[in-house]
Write a sequence for this structure.
């Protein structure tokens, strides 16, 4: 099983490679990817350095071009795909159908991965991507239970990649418009749920307040753990009660499901967090490498070590964790 | 994220808070100009030009203000509202400088707060993350007593000529 780790900078990429990532995924320094934050990501020179570092050590680099181009930006998105092919990226991670068609016809040797943003949850949809564009891997949206993943894997020859660890969202990947109501920008087209220019933090007598586009979305009392300033993780008053009405801030952690994911035939596990620091990438990659190696050495005796769990919990949003939809006995 | 921390002791913090913030800011600006400024991307220095950046060491009760002018980091007096303020304990700033801590994890734990222009703060954080350097190999902070002795020496007074501040 491949370990696919995030990088928002060259030191993060090196941290991933040095700590045992098989593949590192990254984005360009613009809105062609879904982690479009100020000062993050790679320019062309940085991409070349990343490729040189990873390839010299036998690891792969995947380029996420996973936002949806708007009519006036088409050229920017196709240039990103051209760049991936020219520079020798191992695969591009795409969501948009038009861009898939462009990549498949213009660069037939370029390996295509279907982004989670493509929101394909059935083998029929994934097989259609295969037939039309030769897609070789699909990243599953985080809405399927283990049983459903198992059934899907059995009915497609496309490699399946699932999220193993990191930030969660409301899981309407590729279709979420929520933050655009207060920021004027959709994450699917502009590449961020909480563009930093729209975010304000303030320590007040009542607690730490977060505002998005001027709208108060959360207030953390003393001792409460903070969360990312996205609208879906705001606290709202509904029928007189103030609570996380859409989603509680928590990170996905599927370490304990690793043997099951492997048994289902899942080919790769993905770590979320291109916006995080090299320290995060190093720590999470180290834990997951150790876990995957332990599984490979003796699957029958695999058990999550307490140290792994402690380390991951400290890095989790709101310092809380969930199995997400994977563990859903009722389907 | 480490659980182990070191806190500036209260009596020392009260002592530090009495000192003007400009001299330490000036010293830090000289160090940053020597060590960091040449490595920072020009577009970041341009973004920071004329903006007031405040580093607030929460447990020491002190802060230092900086700006960028002519491509160099300059200390500012502490009067005036900062464009962005970054607050953490002395220990956590040290861990961030050593790249031993993830800033987001510190933020979730309420140990790092960025107030004001979030985009400016994020740009700075991401630029520092992107510097392709070996992490700073800093040793543990000096003992509180050593810090007090250094502070007292800076003020031109004998460490033994004053009442022990009790640390």
């Amino acid at each position: 099983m491949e370990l696919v780790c995030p990088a928002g900078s060259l030191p993060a990429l090196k941290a991933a490679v040095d700590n045992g990532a098989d593949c590192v995924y990254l984005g360009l320094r613009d809105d062609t990817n879904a982690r479009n934050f100020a000062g993050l990501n790679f320019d062309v020179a940085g991409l070349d350095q990343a490729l040189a570092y990873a390839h010299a050590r036998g690891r792969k680099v995947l380029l996420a071009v996973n936002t949806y181009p708007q009519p006036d930006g088409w050229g920017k998105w196709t240039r990103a795909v051209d760049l991936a092919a020219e520079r020798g990226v191992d695969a591009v991670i795409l969501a948009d159908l038009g861009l898939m068609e462009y990549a498949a016809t213009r660069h037939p040797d370029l390996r295509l991965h279907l982004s989670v943003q493509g929101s394909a949850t059935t083998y029929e949809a994934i097989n259609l991507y295969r037939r039309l564009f030769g897609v070789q891997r699909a990243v599953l949206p985080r809405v399927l239970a283990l049983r459903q993943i198992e059934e899907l894997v059995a009915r497609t020859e496309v490699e399946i990649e699932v999220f193993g660890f990191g930030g969660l969202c409301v899981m309407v990947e590729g279709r979420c418009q929520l933050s655009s109501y207060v920021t004027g920008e959709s994450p699917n087209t502009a590449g961020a749920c909480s563009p930093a220019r729209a975010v304000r933090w303030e320590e007040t007598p009542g607690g730490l307040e977060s505002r998005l586009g001027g709208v108060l979305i959360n207030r953390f009392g003393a001792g409460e753990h903070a969360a990312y300033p996205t609208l879906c993780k705001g606290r709202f008053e509904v029928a007189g009660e103030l609570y996380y009405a859409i989603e509680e801030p928590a990170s996905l952690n599927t370490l304990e499901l690793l043997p099951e994911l492997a048994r289902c035939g899942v080919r790769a596990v993905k770590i979320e967090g291109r916006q995080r620091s090299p320290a995060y990438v190093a720590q999470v990659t180290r834990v997951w490498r150790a876990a995957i190696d332990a599984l490979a050495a003796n699957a029958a005796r695999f058990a999550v070590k307490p140290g792994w769990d402690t380390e991951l919990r400290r890095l989790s949003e709101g310092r809380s964790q969930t199995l997400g939809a994977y563990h859903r006995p009722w389907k | 994220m480490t659980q182990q921390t070191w806190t500036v002791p209260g009596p020392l913090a009260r002592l530090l808070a009495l000192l003007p913030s400009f001299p330490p800011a000036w010293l830090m600006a000289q160090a940053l100009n020597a060590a960091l400024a040449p490595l920072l991307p020009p577009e970041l220095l341009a973004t920071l030009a004329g903006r007031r950046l405040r580093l607030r060491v929460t447990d020491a009760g002190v802060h230092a203000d900086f700006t960028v002018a002519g491509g160099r980091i300059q200390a500012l007096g502490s009067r005036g509202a900062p464009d962005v303020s970054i607050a953490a304990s002395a220990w956590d700033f040290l861990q961030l400088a050593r790249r031993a801590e993830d800033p987001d994890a510190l933020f979730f734990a309420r140990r790092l707060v960025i107030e004001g222009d979030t985009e400016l703060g994020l740009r700075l954080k991401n630029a520092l993350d992107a510097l392709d350097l070996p992490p700073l190999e800093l040793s543990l902070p000096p003992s509180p007593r050593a810090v007090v002795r250094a502070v007292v020496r800076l003020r031109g007074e004998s460490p033994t000529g004053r009442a022990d501040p009790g640390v």
User: Anything to note?
Assistant: The domain at 10-154 of chain B is CATH 3.30.1050.10 (Nonspecific Lipid-transfer Protein; Chain A).
